[in-house]
Specification:
heterodimer, A: seven-stranded mixed β-sheet, four-stranded antiparallel β-sheet, B: 110 residues, mainly beta, 0% helix
Chain lengths: 115, 110
């Protein structure tokens, strides 16, 4: 089945370390997104990409960077992790080519803990 | 500014009772609104969208532009409805970006 996968699923790291979260999809979608989920805050958009050459900041991009290596891959990096980046991170995709783009498909999430 | 508000963090009901999960939004244009659901150990997934005017798993949601609300309702809750529910709004234009509310945990007790 076409799917959205995230690696790693869980990660514990220390303050100041660089860390990369990876997202891959086999849905053939052109659009990809990174969100973080915090209790009481819902999902907040970090970065999004509408194709390989189109990357945009979301609501909370400070402290994060992304790379769209291919249509199917979208990586999120924390250059120097800090404890308040401890959260659950979700990747999502959507199909922008149909002109409807009404549904996002989510990965299973990566639980990141920064000590 | 566009915003989605879900005032309840937790809603607890007994099986068979009616359920209403509240969602209010602020938006300057014509919104597209969605409900996403996350069951335990499963991925976040689309439940329903207002433009489809459909009933999914017994849930319905009507867009009320006068009250700027998109409440999710079900007449008789089931234990398998227990999950986290997110209301989401799509921004102007064909951008695909969604604004999510804070989420409401629905707990259906036996």
């Amino acid at each position: 089945d076409a799917d959205v996968t995230q690696t790693p699923r869980n990660r514990i790291t220390k303050t100041g370390k660089r860390i990369m979260l990876e997202c891959s999809q086999t849905k053939g979608h052109d659009r990809m997104y990174w969100y973080r989920q915090d209790p009481g805050l819902g999902l907040q958009l970090i970065y999004y990409s509408f194709d390989v050459k189109d990357i945009n900041k979301g609501e909370i991009s400070d402290g994060y960077s992304v790379s769209r290596q291919a249509q199917a891959k979208f990586s999120l990096s924390l250059e120097s992790a800090i404890p308040n980046q401890t959260a659950l991170y979700f990747c999502a995709t959507s199909d922008g080519t149909s002109g409807r783009d009404n549904e996002q498909f989510f990965g299973p999430g990566t639980r990141l803990t920064v000590l | 500014a566009q915003r989605v508000t879900q005032p309840e963090k937790l809603l607890s009901v007994f099986k068979g009772a009616p359920v209403e999960l509240k969602c209010n939004y602020s938006y300057s244009g014509s919104p597209e609104l969605f409900w996403y659901v996350q069951y335990s150990r499963q991925r976040l997934q689309l439940l329903l969208r207002h433009i489809s005017r459909e009933s999914i798993k017994g849930f319905t949601a009507d867009l009320n532009k006068g009250e700027t609300s998109f409440h999710l309702k079900k007449p008789f809750a089931q234990e398998e409805d227990s999950a986290m529910y997110y209301c989401a709004l799509k921004r102007l234009g064909n951008t695909g970006k969604l604004i999510f509310g804070q989420g409401t945990t629905l707990q259906v007790k036996p």
